[in-house]
Amino acid sequence: MKLMHLLDGSVSSEFILIHDSKEAKGGLLINEFIKQNVRLQNNVHLLSLEKNPVIFKNVPKASNLKHHCFSDYNKWLISKRSDHSSEEHLNPIDVLKDIQKNLKTESKTVIVIDSLSLLVLLYPDVSYKSIWNLVNQQVLPGRQQQQVICLIHTDVLPGGKKTLKMFEQMATTNLIVFHDKSKSIVTTSHRKASGRIIQTVEEFSTDKATGLISTKEIELTKEIKTQNDRDNIASINNDVTFKLGLEDEEKRARSELVLPYLKTAKTGSGEIVYEPDANDDWDEEDPDDDLNI
């Protein structure tokens, strides 16, 4: 499963979750998904919870791109400004409900949230349910399946790894962004309808002049694979109430332990030795001697 297949719409995915952190930003991918969906004439709804929409560069102005929650949606500045419109005061949860009620039938609807972490922080009780309703909404006859694309900051996510695991399991496609030296790497994990998981690792970059993104499939280095294995083990340890592994001192003590008795198996040569007892009818004469002429 390649990143470009998701960007150009050749592979469908109901929920794309982009994982990023302070060290590896995923804003470039969000920007590219918006641009490609606008180009495909899909109805794009961008919920700018974290950043001003002007940061989404190279995204053409179009009638099929609508911005929401871009100005004081949490009413933090309402006392300082009086030029707010009623639409700007709609909170993200109400915006998502309104989008669901007014879906257009002639084209695909794509909902982009630039910070799922902030949505969880502001609305911890209903954020998961709202995203679940979007992803699992029944597709009525004549309508296309809508798509949800979210950027989640894994290092500042309320609830930590448990919250991340909930959204990760819900997502059809998980894009994990990280850096390997000076390279930007994305790991794509896509769940097909059959339940099979397809994974790819790609290097991605963007041309500053054209704004076009390019990708190149690569193989993980041994160091990154080792680190990923350690992260997976650490994730498993965090999900259980008991310790699965051993500390370094415990491993050292185990290796130095002298067992009181250790049974060793003797290897034989395969020769069969038979010792007759007193009850055996043993006749050393050749039974064929009387046949000699």
Automatic annotation (TrEMBL):
InterPro entries assigned to the protein according to its UniProt record, in alphabetical order: Elp5, P-loop_NTPase
Compartments where located: Cytoplasm; Nucleus
Stretches for region Disordered: 272-293
GO molecular function terms noted in the UniProt entry: tRNA binding
Listed pathway(s): tRNA modification; 5-methoxycarbonylmethyl-2-thiouridine-tRNA biosynthesis
Compositional bias annotation for Acidic residues: 277-293
Family assignment from sequence similarity: Belongs to the ELP5 family.
Name of the protein: Elongator complex protein 5
Organism name: Cuerna arida
